[in-house]
Design brief:
The chain is mostly helical. The protein has one domain. The protein is 49% helix and 11% strand. It is built from 6 helices and 3 strands. A 3-stranded mixed sheet has the order 1-3-2. Helix 1 packs across helix 5 and helix 4 crosses helix 5.
């Protein structure tokens, strides 16, 4: 599947996921930009991230922006080729993994650590 189609599938999945979020979380989720990239940037790999990383949250978690001298704007990155490979080329599995990865990264924005994500089934 080509990158344009994967991007559209992922964007549609994220939008549908946001619509199903609890009403008190939905505006927070919609305020965080989601970027769809084919693969991780080489600088990210140089930092020690695995080449098959599925997604990443960067920036300041919600509510901590003012506690930092130079807060970075929050963003969620989804790596489409890794998600597609993880789904073994199955569009339904791709949508499900995109949904789970998005929710995992959104959880980081909300300030949840790995244990809290795991407790919510988002590990």
């Amino acid at each position: 599947m080509n990158l344009a189609r994967l991007t559209q599938l992922a964007a549609d999945t994220v939008a549908a996921t946001q619509r199903k979020l609890p009403v008190e979380i939905r505006p927070l989720a919609q305020a965080v930009p989601v970027h769809y990239e084919a693969t991780p940037h080489p600088s990210l790999l140089a930092e020690g991230f695995e080449p098959d990383i599925l997604g990443l949250f960067t920036g300041s978690p919600y509510g901590t922006e003012l506690a930092q001298d130079q807060p970075a704007p929050p963003e969620i990155l989804l790596y489409l080729e890794s998600l597609w490979d993880y789904a073994e080329g199955d569009p339904a599995a791709f949508r499900e993994e995109t949904r789970l990865t998005y929710l995992h990264e959104l959880g980081h924005y909300l300030g949840w650590d790995e244990n809290e994500l795991a407790a919510r089934g988002l590990d």
